[in-house]
Amino acid sequence: MRMRRKPNLEPRLEKCAAVTVGNPEEYRGRWRESFGGFEAVHVELGCGKGRFTADVAASAPDVLLVAIERDPSALVMAMELALSRGLSNVRFILGDVNTLGEFFAPCEIGRLYLNFPDPWPKSRDAKLRLTAPNFLRRYASSLSMGGELQFKTDNTPLFDWSVEQFSAEGWELRGVTHDLHANGLVGILTGYEAKFVAQGQKINRLVAVKRESTKTLADGEVPRLRNASLCDARGYEESLETNAKKKEDRS
Ligand SMILES: C[S@@+](CC[C@H](N)C(=O)[O-])C[C@H]1O[C@@H](n2cnc3c(N)ncnc32)[C@H](O)[C@@H]1O
User: Fold this and answer.
1) Which residues contact residue 231 at a Cβ distance below 8 angstroms, ignoring those fewer than 6 apart?
2) Distance CA 154, CA 62 (A)
3) Per the residue annotation, which of 118, 160, 219, 249 is the catalytic one?
4) pTM, to two decimals
5) Cα–Cα distance, 140 to 80 (Å, whole number)
6) How many domains are contained in the chain?
7) Are 209 and 174 in contact (CB under 8 A)?
8) Which contacts of 4-7 are long-range, i.e. CB under 8 A and separated by 24 or more positions?
9) What is the C-alpha separation between 91 and 168, in angstroms, rounded?
10) CATH code, domain with 156
11) Which residues span the domain enclosing 98?
12) Ligand 1: distance of its center to the CA of 88 in Å?
């Protein structure tokens, strides 16, 4: 969901110039060297207000973390947070995940983070899900061999559907779980995740590793979507029915 436009957005964006990359195409193939000789470059897709971005950057100062976000009102908050924490290893791109390949050279990224993307539950919107094959191939093209994509979502239907897509596209899956925090909080939480956890919702997570078998954009035409329906992919309809029944019982 797009945020309401922030007041004074333009001047606030301008004040964040030190962490903004306005011309990301110019750094294609030389991100690590251009920003101070970092060990690796990691990219967060759809960083929102940047809680996770700031905490991850603080935890790994030798890695350059580049966050991409298309909503300027969310982005400005993420950038202000990074600046307030004095982080020197994080940069932001106002842009669309769809154009990842224009910003990064093949195999340039060591790790991708994809946290709580919009689920696009209708079948006709399946291609917009950020784990649809057309996106997975973009990610694979920009990731190094053995590089990984870490994916978290509260949405179990989307998660199960995504597991199918990753597998069919030749990624190796590790640590697939429907309840990441079953035994206490694990890892760095995102803004959305913190809210869901506080509500007692379970968090799904997986790590997808790029292997020789992983399809990239170079493999040609992206296949037709396998099973676009999230409802078919898991017991979503069932959960809707259960919720409806609970409501009925209460009234
Ligand atoms: C549900 S929010 C999650 C934010 C954050 N990752 C978190 O977990 O707190 C999804 C974010 O992804 C951004 N987004 C969605 N599609 C995008 C795209 N194609 N390119 C860049 N950002 C995108 C949205 O603007 C939004 O800020």
Assistant:
1) 157, 237
2) 30
3) 118
4) 0.92
5) 30
6) 1
7) yes
8) 4/73, 5/72, 5/73, 6/72, 6/73, 6/76, 6/77
9) 33
10) 3.40.50.150
11) 9-250
12) 23
List the chain pLDDT tens, one digit each, 251 residues. Answer: 567 777 799 999 999 999 999 999 999 999 999 998 999 999 999 999 999 999 999 999 999 999 999 999 999 999 999 999 999 999 999 999 999 999 999 999 999 999 999 999 999 999 999 999 999 999 999 999 999 999 999 999 999 999 999 999 999 999 999 999 999 999 999 999 999 999 999 999 999 999 999 999 999 988 888 789 986 444 444 555 555 666 666 66
Active site residue 118: yes
Residue 1 lies in a domain: no
Show the beta-strand stretches assigned E in the chain. 40-45, 63-69, 90-94, 109-115, 143-153, 172-177, 204-209
4 in any annotated domain: no
Atom number in ligand 1 closest to CA 98: 19
Structure tokens, 110 = 């060591």
Q: Which protein residues are within 6 Å of ligand 1, measured from CB?
A: 46-48, 68-71, 74, 96-98, 115-118, 190-193
Domain membership of residue 192 (yes or no) is yes
| Cα R_g (the chain), whole angstroms | 19
Residue 48 CA, ligand 1 centroid: distance in Å: 5
Tell me the C-alpha distance between 204 and 154, whole Å. 6
Residue 199 lies in a domain: yes
CA of 185 to the centre of ligand 1 (A): 22
Q: Report the alpha-carbon angle 163-164-166, nearest 5.
A: 65
